[in-house]
Structures are given as C-alpha cells and as structure tokens.
Amino acid sequence: MAKQHLRRLQGHVETNSDPAEAPAQSRSRGSVGHPTLCAKPCIQFARGLGCRKGRACGNCHWPHQRVQPDKRQREFSRTLGKEEFFGLLAVLAREKALEDGLEDVGFLLAVLEVQAGLTPPAAPAKQKVRLLCNLRKVIQSMSFSEMIRMAAGRCGDVCKARLLQELTAVRELRRP
C-alpha cells in the first residue's frame, strides 16, 4: 500500500488496471466507461484515502495518466479562433471515437463540428505549425471524455451544459 501511494505521489500511475476485475466496492458511478468515457478521477481515491461515497461517487476510482497541455500550449490554444480550436478538437475526437469503438457519440461530435463552423481552416504560419503540432499531440493522448470536457470549457453555457449532459448520457448507456 505504501509503495502504491509513493508511486502515485511520484506520478507513476499503473494504467493497465482492468475495471472488470475490480472488487464491487471499488467501482463507482463515475468509473463507468473507464478509461475512455469515465468521469474525472476521484481525488480521495487517488490519494489512497478511499472514498466515503463509495459506489455513489460521481468520479472515477481507477488510475489515470494525467494529460494536460503545458503553459505554452494552453496559451497557444487560447490564441486560436473558436472555429480553429473546435475544428482541431472535432477531428481528434472523431479519430479517438473510431479508435475506441465508440458508436454512440455522434451527437457529441456533431456539436463540436457545429462549433467549428463550416469554413475550411486557413494554412497556418510556420511558427504556428509547430505549436499546433505539439498541441495536437497532447490532445491526441487524452481520453475521449477529456477532449469533450476541454471543448465544454471553451463554449458558451448552453453548449457546455449540452455537451456534459450528453457525455453523461453516453456514459450511462454503459452502466451494467
């Protein structure tokens, strides 16, 4: 137990855990669809403290690899226009959905595509190409649900609510 806690603190997370092999008490509502569609990690569980909410917890009780754009990538993503940002996310989310065999996420992808608009993206400048490539790599390594949550953070209140509601609905379809 102490070794696991030390590994978590050092950032070494075991990602090959199979949720199907877990004891029933460790599964939570938020763990459904792990690792692709699950909710954010439960902080209490990640710290090795256990979760008082147990199965009712809305967060995931499984190890996660932390994927987050660094400061430069976050600043760059803020400089992208809405259409360009959502265009990138729409393409990468569609690729991730195909890769993970997610067939019931069409509405989520459609919302991203509508946010991207119908205009084709312009050719980026050379300096921008490298930054865009780096941002693309980080986003590609995210789970599908992380991509959707990232998109929700950039859209208006109605769009954000709809994206998160639909993500929850897709997750609920996978509940046993």
Topology:
Elements (H helix, E strand, L loop, with lengths): L1 H9 L32 H4 L24 H9 L2 H19 L5 H11 L9 H15 L3 H11 L2 H17 L3
Helix pairs in contact: 3-6, 4-5, 4-7, 7-8
Textual characterization of the structure:
This protein is an all-alpha fold. The protein folds into two domains: 2-56, no CATH class; 71-173, no CATH class. It has helices at residues 2-10, 43-46, 71-79, 82-100, 106-116, 126-140, 144-154, 157-173. α4 packs antiparallel against α5. It is globular, with a radius of gyration of 17 Å. The model is unreliable at 1-16 and 21-25 (pLDDT under 50).
Structural class determined from secondary elements: mainly alpha
What's the number of helices?
8
* Oligomeric state, counting identical vs distinct chains: single chain
- Which percent band covers the strand fraction? under 5%
Helix content: 40-55%
Please report the total strand number as a whole number. Answer: 0
User: What overall form do the CA principal axes indicate?
Assistant: globular
Overall number of structural domains: 2
What's the pLDDT, averaged over the residues? 83
Largest sheet report:
none
Q: Which H/E pattern describes the elements?
A: HHHHHHHH
From the alpha-carbon coordinates, what is the Rg to the nearest angstrom? Answer: 17 Å
Low-confidence stretches: 1-16, 21-25
Distance between the termini: 29 Å
